[in-house]
Amino acid sequence: MDYIAEGLVQALNLLLQGDPETFSAIWVTLRVSTASILASLILGIPPGFLLGHYSFAGKRAVRVIVDTLLSLPTVVIGLLVYTLVSRQGPLGEFGLLFTLPAICIGQTILGLPIVIALTASAVETLDQRLPALLSTLGADRKQMLLTTVWESRFSLLAAAVTAYGRIVSEVGISMMVGGNIKWYTRTITTAIALETNKGRFAFGIALGLVLLLIAFLINLVLNVLKKRTQV
Amino acid sequence: MSSFRLYAALFFLTFCLMFPAAAPGQSLMMATTTSTDNTGLLDELAPKFKQDTGITLKWTAVGTGKALEIGRNCDVEVLMVHAPAAEKQFVNNGYGVERTQVMYNDFVIIGPDRDPAGIRGMDTKTAIKQMADEKGLFVSRGDDSGTNKKERALWDEAGVNPPARAKWYLETGQGMISTIRVAAERDGYTLTDRGTYIKYEHSQGGPVPLKILVQGDPALFNQYSAIAVNPDRCENVDYELAQKFINWITSGQIQAFIGNYKLLGKQLFTPNAGN
Fold first, then answer.
1. Domains of chain B, CATH where assigned
2. I want to staple A106 with a disulfide (CB 3.0 to 4.6 A). Which of A173, A200, B23, B228 is the partner?
3. Which DSSP string corresponds to B1-35?
4. A35:B19 CB<8 A
């Protein structure tokens, strides 16, 4: 129990005194997780919409595959991205291993299935009469799409929050393809793993609390956003 | 399709915003062992290197086996590792240019103070045999690191093979400090480099449960060397930067600095470049 109390005190100290190592890890975490969630949403919402909205042959098979990918372990993604971006790999010429874009690629792969699956479910559970209503009102395809997305905005927000939660808390990808390089690719989670190894448990707990605080602030902002757009 | 283009632009923008062009100045990527990183030596050396040469040193700390693999894949410019036999092989295979000695310390066998297998003060060979016979719990790195390679060589020399699976032989698959911690929690023996052991004592901030029981045997010598990754094989690596680093770390001033790096008043590494 001592460690937890000590960690709480230390978390406050680190934040208030602007400890450069802590802030570097926070900044890296925020940058890379924001890029990853945006990429996941940009790449994931359209296919999710298609999957939920249209009926086609093999639709159920695709759903099963997407749902299976929800349990893709981060270390497997890490390994996959590692072999892709290593100098000996197919994307080797870009020199991405041990950089933030490499982590971002991995985290996007992590977030994508969540966004696709939850978007598809959200669109599926919308009122079935909506498309009919929209076409009666003379909506074209584009208006139809935008309206459907708008109507399912709360579910999409929930999808984003879920995916972000997974992305910001993962450690396997960041550790394997980021390399935990101090000042550059050390995220909050890889720093916690390192500090635990070194036996600085209180410092590790402090970093964990910082991560929770970030999650809390983001959810707070989203909640306000949700209130604002409610009719 | 304009909406597609808009989409692509948005995606591109996301990346540009998050990852502005690389930091100014040159940077050198190194793969090194957990022992040099855990001791905190690199945290001291990196800013000095930046000050002296303007080059940013970035490193990833993994076991020596993995570090050599990363070098073979051309993913770093330089290695600082401690498994002489594997290093010579690495250079002979043309993966690295040259092996330059930087510093040494020694391995020690640590274990619980009450020493259930009774190895205190023995020479390495007898101690190893004794541990196998007495079935004292031994905690191994099990990660193909330099320390793990050394440990396996010691078992070989003593003529006992640790069983692939036994109750008294644990493989952690983790770094040195974590492995010491496992040994401490499980009341077992382990092989560690002296530097990491001192760091462990330092971080505990008080008396530690594991004591040095076997030391001072020539068989326990632990040499650290730097190797530049071969630019003939790896077009992307900057050989000049790697060479600059090796010249710097073997220079008189930095060698003296390494010799003076102490925790709890104890020296962690002895510089020996040029010997």
1. 20-105+222-271 (3.40.190.10), 107-220 (3.40.190.10)
2. A173
3. -HHHHHHHHHHHHHHHHHS-SPPSS-EEEEEE-HH
4. yes
